From TrEMBL:
Enoyl reductase (ER) domain: residues covered: 12-334
Disordered: annotated span: 1-23
MF terms (GO), sorted A to Z: oxidoreductase activity
Pfam families: ADH_N (PF08240), ADH_zinc_N (PF00107)
Gene3D superfamilies, alphabetized: Medium-chain alcohol dehydrogenases, catalytic domain, NAD(P)-binding Rossmann-like Domain
Residue stretches spanning the membrane: none
Name of the protein in its database record: NAD(P)-dependent alcohol dehydrogenase
SUPFAM superfamilies with a match to the protein in the record: GroES-like (SSF50129), NAD(P)-binding Rossmann-fold domains (SSF51735)
Length: 336
């Protein structure tokens, strides 16, 4: 079977290798064999593939994987042969509060991932995929979809009529837009591209702002709410954007930090954060239980994920180069 691996970290994306290897073993008692058909690209995957995050040479890439169960172990009761399934980001975090603070057991980073045609793993490493979703659509759930769901619903307790601010038009933010609109919220979204903002409006965004043209976009978003401020912010930027996000948030609102695209450290206006009594929460994706709940919710929401472009598995390096360009709107997927 084909699988795509990291090469020499010094070579970056040029070092990615496509190899032919033996298929995986038949499943043990608690395992399933999955024929994988799709994965989706995330910033975390890019960090591993580009060598920024130092995974060992030969690591099978990709945290997200969707496909069909081909065989089940004797003790497996959750799946049957032929079921459509999707992987979870933290295989060891099944339920309850967070227990993991690193990526040592995340597929595609600390352990081998899903850029391969077959995999045999414990059944608990997958959940069912939403009914009637394609494999490519289901593959977007594991990281981007789950992060948006946990930020808005699990941590933010999103309700109809709430106001939400999303930063940028990458996979998490566009998923957040679709979830929030499906749940009856009002959404503001930022971008440096007017064309992308028009696409966001077409998906239901109620208010848009170009942060390159409006450096004080936090105040602008607050004014959109009549000066009250938004209820929820899904914060992907980190130090360079957090100050504006705090300005945009209402007293007693919620900011969920899910990314640090502008760096891993910087100044935070702590006095304003304290005065507004904002709840600032950092998260990394979610648990197996969170994903099961998300899949159930998706089957009752009237949307499918926004997929920008698809590549073949052996074109994974080119897919990452496209992600690197920043031209995409929503998700990039690989199909195999």
């Amino acid at each position: 079977m084909k699988q795509v691996e990291t090469g020499n970290p010094e070579q970056g994306l040029d070092g990615i290798k496509v190899n032919e290897v033996a298929p995986p073993p038949e499943p043990k008692a608690n395992e399933i064999m999955v024929e994988l058909h799709a994965s989706s690209l995330n910033y975390h995957d890019y960090g591993v593939a580009s060598g920024t995050m130092k995974a060992p040479e030969g690591r099978v890439l990709m945290s997200d994987g969707a496909g069909v169960v081909k065989a089940v172990g004797s003790d497996v009761t959750t799946f049957n042969e032929g079921d459509h399934v999707v992987s979870v980001f933290f295989p060891d975090w099944q339920t309850g509060g967070p227990t993991i603070g690193d990526f040592s057991r995340t597929p595609g980073d600390g352990i081998d991932g899903y850029a391969r045609e077959f995999v045999t793993v414990p059944a608990s490493w997958f959940t069912r995929a939403p009914a009637n979703w394609s494999h490519s659509q289901a593959a977007t759930i594991t990281t981007a979809g789950m992060t948006a769901w946990r930020a808005l619903v699990v941590e933010g307790n999103l309700k109809p009529g709430d106001t939400v601010l999303l930063l940028g038009t990458g996979g998490v933010s566009i998923y957040g837009l679709q979830i929030a609109k499906a749940m009856g919220a009002r959404v503001a979204i930022t971008s440096s591209s007017d064309d992308k903002l028009e696409k966001a409006k077409a998906l239901g965004a109620d208010f848009t702002v170009n942060y390159k043209k409006d450096e004080n976009w936090g105040k602008t978003v607050s004014e959109w709410t009549g000066g009250r401020g938004v209820d929820h912010v899904v914060e992907v930027g980190g130090p360079a954007t957090l100050g504006q996000s705090i300005k945009a948030t209402r007293v007693g609102g919620s900011i969920v930090l899910i990314g640090v695209l502008t760096g891993i450290g910087g100044e935070v206006p702590t006095a304003l954060l304290m005065r507004k009594q904002i709840r600032l929460t950092g998260i990394i994706v979610g648990s197996h239980q969170h994903q099961e709940e998300f899949v159930s919710a998706l089957e009752n929401m009237n949307f499918t994920p926004e997929i920008d472009k698809s590549f073949a598995l052996e074109e994974l390096a080119d897919a990452f180069r496209y992600e690197e360009s920043g031209e995409h709107f929503g998700k990039i997927v690989v199909e195999y």
